[in-house]
Amino acid sequence: MTGKRPIVVHLPSPTGGRRVRVDGEILGLAHNVRDLVEFLRRAGLEIEPEQVADSPLIDWRGVGPERWETESRT
């Protein structure tokens, strides 16, 4: 498993929020960095909110921590 990031934050879902997986297990749907940090804390991973953008453990799918909602199509 060398080289893989154990935390995956998926693209924003159509209804809002981003699915969070750790080692293949879905932890929940995060709607912001605070939610993500809490899911990780419960999984035994201590990452500060200001560290999530640059953490080598997190694989941000598509977009980084600045987006939690899908882009509206108007």
Sum this structure up briefly.
By secondary structure, this protein is of the alpha+beta class. Helix content is about 15%, strand content about 25%.
Structure, described:
The chain has 74 residues and is of the alpha+beta class. Helices cover 14% and strands 27% of the residues. The chain contains 1 helix and 4 strands; from the N terminus they run βββαβ. The protein has a 4-stranded mixed sheet, with helices on one face. Strand 1 (7-12) and strand 2 (18-22) form a beta hairpin. It is globular and about 35 Å long. It starts with 6 loop residues before the first strand and ends in a 14-residue tail after the last strand. The mean pLDDT is 91.
Keywords:
alpha+beta, four-stranded mixed beta sheet, 4 strands, 27% strand
> What structural class do helix, strand and pairing data support?
alpha+beta
In the predicted model, the low-confidence regions spanning at least 5 consecutive residues are none
Whole-number average pLDDT? 91
State the end-to-end CA separation: 42 Å
Major sheet summary line: 4 strands, mixed
Order of helices and strands: EEEHE
What level of helicity do the residues show?
Answer: 10-25%
Topology:
Layout: E1 7-12, E2 18-22, E3 25-30, H1 33-42, E4 58-60
